[in-house]
Amino acid sequence: MVEETGLLVEVIGEAGECTMRREGKGRRHVFFLMRATGQTPDWPHHDGRDTFLIDPEKVTRYMGQTAYGEIWEACRERVKELCQANQTSPE
Q1: What is the SS3 assignment for 39?
Q2: 1 within domain boundaries
Q3: What sign does the dihedral 87-17-1-58 (CA atoms) show?
Q4: Which end of the chain is more exposed for a tag (fewer CB within 10 A), N or C?
Q5: Rounded to an integer, what distance in angstroms lies between the CA atom of residue 41 and that of residue 6?
Q6: 2 found inside a domain
Q7: What is the band of 88 on the pLDDT scale with cuts at 50, 70, 90?
Q8: DSSP state letter for 1
Q9: Separation of alpha carbons 72 and 59, rounded Å
Q10: Backbone dihedral region of 70: left (phi > 0), alpha (psi from -120 to 50 degrees) or beta?
């Protein structure tokens, strides 16, 4: 599957959901955990501009007390487990 930033990804599962106001209406947003498996030619146009790869240990400082922060806290341990498994699994 191609993610909107140009990464090829495998969807791992749902991370969480929240409702945010946009254009005067409450909009439901659902977030997913994904594992990057490759890149498309679009990736360099996003990397470091509107998309940033961040160590899981540092994510909390960027999310703060927001709906995004609540979703992060709900899936943080799962992300850390996935990262550790990816580092130790043979390629």
Answers
A1: strand
A2: no
A3: negative
A4: C
A5: 7
A6: no
A7: low
A8: -
A9: 8
A10: alpha
- pLDDT (tens digit per residue) in 60-82: 888 877 888 889 999 999 999 98
How many Å apart are CA 20 and CA 55, to the nearest integer?
26
Main-chain dihedrals φ then ψ at residue 48, nearest 5 degrees = 80, 0
Q: Let me know if residue 73 belongs to a domain.
A: yes
State residue 27 phi and psi, 5-degree precision.
-115, 130
Triad 45, 58, 14: Cα angle to 5°:
70
Rounded to two decimals, the pTM is: 0.77
Residue 86 neighbours by CB under 8 Å, 6+ apart:
35
Instruction: List the domain range (segments joined by +) for residue 64.
Output: 7-41+50-88
User: What are 36's two structure tokens?
Assistant: 């990057």
From CA 79, how far away is CA 35, in angstroms rounded?
10
Q: How many structural domains does the chain have? A: 1
Q: Which residue has the tokens 């890149």?
A: 39
Within-domain flag for 78 = yes
